[in-house]
Structure prediction request, 617 residues.
Amino acid sequence: MRNAVTLIILSIFLVGSVASWDEVHNKSWDDQLGVASVLRELGDSVVISKLPDFTVKGASAEKGKSIIEMGFAEKPGGGKSGKQSSHFVCTSCHNTSQEDPDLTVNDPLARLKYTADKGMPFLQATTLYGAVNRETYYNGDYYLKYGELVEPARNDIRGAIQLCATECAQGRALDDWEMESILLYLWDIDLKLVDLNLNEEEKEMVVDHLNNSNDHQEAIDLIKSRYLLKSDATFVYPPDDRKQGYDHAGNAENGKLIYENSCLHCHYKQKYSFFHLDSRKLSFKHLRAKAGSYSRQSIYQVIRWGVPTKSGKSSYMPQYTREKLTDEMVEDLRAYIEQQAQ
Amino acid sequence: MAVAVWGQETVFQTFKDTRVINSHSVETLKAGRMDIRISHRFGDIAGTAGGWQTFYGLENASDIMIGAEYGFTDNLMMGINRTKGAGPLKQNVHGFLKFRLITQEYEGSQPFSLAFLALGSGSTMPKSEIEGVLNFFEKSAHRFSYHLQVIMARQFSERFSFQISGGWTYRNIVPSDDQNDLVSVGAATRFQLTKSIGIIVDANFPISELRTTENGYYPALGVGFEWETGGGHVFQLNVTNATGIAETDFIPYTQTNWADGQYRLGFTISRLFTL
Prediction:
């Protein structure tokens, strides 16, 4: 209560709206206030570089959401834009909600259970929720995959979005209005203050900084300590002996979640793939038979190296990095496959 | 987001392909998918026209089809293809629409899938100077024939599917001792050995007093196996007595008999693309 009294209760114009940023004069704590907006108010130079370009006509967060979820949106001049990619939409590989219970650590197993509890798929790529809060993109081993293409993307969110559109989604480059629309939507789904789990004292400190013109680095550092500033990526080899697998005992319960929320997300009824999988015996028997093989139908092969594009087809399957699926979790999946193939 | 596979969930792939062997299956292409298909029927393996002299038919081509098909929705597809033609009309161009009205549910209220096929064929072969032959083409309309079909199928288990069909074929020009329209029935089945390999069988029976073995006509019977190699590629190898590939060809004009060694090797390569 004491803390509540000490908080300065002033008007909020920022809540979830990029357009109202410049109208913020008086600040109080609001759980739903966007973290990026607060950092901008605090003068964080990194987040300022990600501000949408409001001079681009015809862009809107609503259109950005449509492009991300469906691959198209209404063009500025009217009519529907062509699909950005024939193969994927952003949500083929990215969630758009929070997917980690603790934003300060990378824990794929915790993510698996958290997303299952929330009814979300469990995907190879990092959620777009909080994308504007991250500071670098295509981190770690993505340089091995995309080479110099990573350079304009690593420190520039627009570069990252464009690389994702053309290389990851194997689609066309985004027009300016599409790019800015996506960025507007990403600002809508940035982290919220409530996600930072600050205590009352910390909240008070942030609000204090928001209302004073002092050096705000302390508040910026505090906020940035409560989530990961990048999504790291470590490419992993399949096990040396695929019949043996990784040296871990599998947990079929976890494997079930991986199979249903990850494998079937793309493969069930060939949603984003030409290869159909379901929860019937023949699918499991096939996966079990191929698991130990040195072919592209082995789960070890496709999980760790993905499936490359083939002649005449630009669709492919991206690999799972260690940050998205640990070796233990791959064995969990195998244990479930073995169990169901009996 | 556990994916429900049972209950109201619709059955996926009662057959692997949009064709069984000679017949269309109840399947349609998914929305946005394009299928580039090449089908081939060789010559007789045995009998008077087969054997070593034709390397068991491999040196002959009874019919060849090259075409492209596209799924507008998950339940509506169209296709256009060209066949060499095995009946009296050659150099045929075919267009078809197939619409799936009902899709079987695993444990829901729909116990089977139902589709309709409408196919039109036009012969582009040169007009003959000889009056009385079919390709004299007194009228341009004589180049055309049509086929309508209703197809009903059920997947009984993940290994076994069965399909029946009824068709009506109309040819604008027929020999003087024949009838323009022809009713037929068909049946087809699939037995899936593994996830990627299945055995398929189909049969089409023309229902007409003129289409009898005494008159030299036979049902079109085929057996084959299909191999899904993954990545949108299905390869089918089959043996059938039918010489033609299109419905307007093999239903009215199959005059080759299994018992006389007049069966042939055939294959289909189907390559799927997402547009």
